[in-house]
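Pipeline run #58 for the internal structure catalog. This entry was flagged by the ingest filter as a single-chain record with no existing model, so it goes straight to prediction. Upstream metadata was stripped on purpose; only the residue string is passed forward. Reviewer on rotation: M.T. Logging verbosity set to normal.
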Amino acid sequence: MAARLTALASPAIALISLVVPAQAADFSGLVDIGGGRKLYLECSGIGAPTVVLISGKGNGAADWSEILDPTAPEHNADYDAVAWGEGKLLKSDSAVFPMVSRFTRVCAYDRPDVRLDGPDRSSSVAQPHPVDQAADDLHRLLAAAGEPGPYVLVPHSYGGLIATLFARTWPDQVAGLVMVDAATPLIRDVASAEAVAKWDAANRKSDPAAPEAVMLIDAYARIDAAPPLGKLPAVVLSSDKPWQPPSAPKPPNPAGGVTFADWQASEKLLATSLKAKFVPSTNSGHNIYAYSPRIVVDAIREVVDAVRKGGTSLAP
């Protein structure tokens, strides 16, 4: 969304996941990934596997440390009020990043052109950018920062495409997935080609207020061309608050192409394709981590526990 839008796992993973540095320091700052470029990264906590939080289009590390004010009336709205800029977001110890840091190592980062203020903006790149560039950036970032895998990847929205390509490209470095209302090429199975083309065109646009732009159809093709994903413990979390108020008129040809019903159907297909635990009732809009951080944290803990036990799937 535009708005606040492999090989089988081997027993070696279980052994690797138990190799934990004696002391892992908290870190926040710019990391040189080569080629004259730097990316902002923050990591906290001790333990393995390391959880890597991958934000959606136009968003960065800060998102994972914020929640929707628990007293905000937007929690009771029958649509995704946060996506419309409503509701107060607060930095909180109950947010996903600080909560996960209590039981394992966790990292979050800024892709290029997602931070609009502050001194730690990641090096800019041409927009729209291809998903393989984003996946390679993440791979180089984790290596340069000395954050060892295998990782549990936790992507939101567009981050789902990055995580999927990362897991297919470097399968030995990914031990689990928690897909947070994540984008998937399976949207093509439920939406028309025309709708997907409009969706792609809308997300390719870059402007000063929202510089990051992405290439969806190109991303689907790159994922199609990558090796298949193997067995991993995985959870798929789906939003259940529609993008627009139910009372709003339903345009016959939505400007963005893809509809909320299309999106929900693609999330169900994603869970099936991953043989993942599916959580469709989250009482959340697209930004599940802001609405219902506990649901996201519990899913991450479940996958982390499975990885530590050497599991390749979650019990139904």
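catalog note: The CA atoms of residues 91 and 229 lie 35 Å apart.
catalog note: Confidence is low (pLDDT under 50) at residues 1-22.
status: ready for reviewer M.T.
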